[in-house]
TrEMBL record:
Protein name: Uroporphyrinogen decarboxylase
Alphabetical list of SUPFAM superfamilies matching this protein: UROD/MetE-like
InterPro entries noted in UniProt: UROD/MetE-like_sf
Amino acid sequence: MSGMKALQQERQQIFKDLYDSKIPKRVPINANLPLEFCIQYAGLPLAETQWTLNGIEEALDKACQMTRSDAYPSGFARFPAHLQILGAKGFVMGSNGFIQHPETVGMEVDEYDDFIKNPYDCIMEKVLPRLYSELNTDPVTRSLVFARAFKAFYDYVETYGKIDVKLIEKYGFYTVPMESSSWVTAPFDFIADFLRSFKGIAMDVKRCPEKITEACEAMLPIQIKRGIPPVPSKYGQTFIPLHMGTYLRNSDFEKLYWPTFSKMVHALAEAGQPCVIFCEHDWMRYLDYLYELPENTRLYFEHGDPKRVKDKLGKKHIISGFYPLTYLRTATKQQCIDKAKELIDILAPGGKYYFEFDKSPVTLDSINVENYAAVLQYVAENAKYDNPGEPTVAEGKPVVKNILAGIPKFKSKYYQTWDEYKAGHPDINPALEAIIASKLQSYEEMLFMMMFMLL
C-alpha cells in the first residue's frame, strides 16, 4: 500500500470514528481554502482565472500541497459565466475579481401571501426576474437565456468535479460518500437573504411577524428537499450557515427563527442526514436551543466561549471552530501554535471534536500562510488520543420521529416528478421506462439544484 493511500485510509477512519461516536486516533482536521484564496496563492489573476479556468487545477494542487487538512480543502465557489448570462443583481463580480452579494430585494412586503401559497412558483414567476435582469423578458428569450446559463453552470461543475477527484486521490484526502452532501439555509435566513433583504426583514419582524412565520413554514418542504441528498448517510453532511439569528431579539428568535429551523434539522436527521451548522457570529445566548438539536449534529462556531460550549454541548454534539483566523496574520508562529494547543486542550478531551478555523481565508493577505501551515502541522502531529476506539460519552435523546410525516411534500407546477411526466406521456416504452425515468428525473433535479444556487 502506498504511503498516500495509507494516509487516506487513516483519514477516512478518524472521521468515521468521530461520526460513530468513538475516540479517533487523533483530532481530524477540516480546513477549507476558498477558490479565490487558491487562485491568489498561485499568483494567478483572480477575475480572469475564474472565467477561463486556465491554471485552476495547478492552483488547487498548490493549495493542497500547502495544507495539512485531512478533509479535501477546496471550498465552495460561485461561477461567473451563468451569473453574467442571467444578469445577476445579487451576485456581482467587482473590479478586484471577488463575487460579492449586494443588498437586494426579490419580494415586496405585500407579496408574502403569494409566496406563502407556493414559494417555488413565486420564486420562478416574481423573484428570479427581479434578481436576474435577463430573465425579465418575453418567454422565448427567457428560455434561451436560461438554456445558455444551464449549460454554462454545469460546464463549471463538471470541470471542478474532475479536478476534485484527481486531487483527492493524489493527496489522499478524506471526502464524504458519493452523493451524500448538500447545503441549505434556515427558512428565516432564506427569506431574509434574497427575498426581503436585511433591512426589509428587520422591518417585517415588527410590522408583520405572522407573515414571516407563515412564510417560514411554507419554505420547509423546499428546504427539506434541498437538504436531503440523493444518498443520505451518517457520514455525509448538509451544510447550513446561520445568518440572521444573532441579529434578533430573544423573543423574536424563539417565535420566528427557531421553530422551522429546528424542525428542518430534525427532519433531515430523521431521513438519516446529519447537519453541519455554521454558527456565524456569537451564538452563546442560544446554547440551550442548540442543545435540543439531534445528537451528533456538527456545530461549527465562529465566536464565543469554547469552554462553555464544550461543557454545555460537547457530550451530545460534535464541535469545531473558534480558532480566530485573524490571529494567523497578527501573531508569531509560536503564538499561533500555542493558540491551537489552548483550544485543543479545551475541546478535544472526550472526543466529539474536529479542528477548524473560525472561518476560511478568502484573501491571501488575510493570513500569514506560514503560520497557517504551521498550525495545521502542529494539530496533525500532536493532537493525538491515548484511548482510540473507545466510545464517547452519550448524552441526549433519540432522533425525533415523524417530523417528515407532518411536513407537506414539495410541489410546484414548475417541478415535475416522473409520475407526473409519465401521466402526460402514456406512450413510454415499458421496456425502457426505468432508464428513461432515471435520465429525465436527473435533469429535473439538476435544474432544481441550479435554481437554488441562484439564491
